[in-house]
Write a structure and sequence with these properties.
- The structure is a single chain.
- The protein is mainly alpha-helical.
- It has 2 domains: 129 residues, Up-down Bundle (Rhopdopsin 7-helix transmembrane proteins); 42 residues, no CATH class.
- Helices cover 73% and strands 0% of the residues.
- The chain is built from 8 helices and no strands.
- α6 runs antiparallel to α7.
- The longest helix has 30 residues.
- It is elongated and about 50 Å long.
- It starts with 6 loop residues before the first helix and ends with a helix.
Amino acid sequence: MTAGLPLSYLFFTIFADLVMIETGLMGALVTSRYKWGFFSFGCAAMLFVFWVLIGPGRKSARALGDDVAKEYTKSCLILSFLWFLYPIAWGLADGGNVISPDSEMVFYGVLDVLAKPCFLAYHIWSLRNIDYERFQFQSGYFTTSSHDDGKFTRHVNEKYANGTNGVANGHANGHANGHANGHINAAPAVATA
């Protein structure tokens, strides 16, 4: 999200991450040599995640500015390194039974702490000097942007002023006139200024 990637990339990356985790789990639970097949699928999903982080993610971060790209690249490399250690842990523990279950728990435990709360804290801290508005986070029907061109505003005004979308006319008009006038009608003036 801090690279400004489109939602389609985010959803595909989250899906690949889930595939990576689930195939690792299934491979750990299978007692035959098929476990290495699950491991291979998990590694393929992990490579897709790395590709998104390092390829389109960095390109998108560069579009937000050099400072965003610099911090994103650092975070991307740290996260990729930490995630690369997971298949090594799996191969030593579940795949090859080279290390004991106690060592496996310590290995995964340390990785989980580093790759999740510690990494998240670092990543948020690294973005502390960047104006969050540059990431273009927005929510709801009553937001516009400078590239809106008024189309979004007209869509919202038409949708709610006429009482459509299954909402009673009284509520929709009151909502559109009371709430939206303060936000939507002022937005085109701000957008063109």
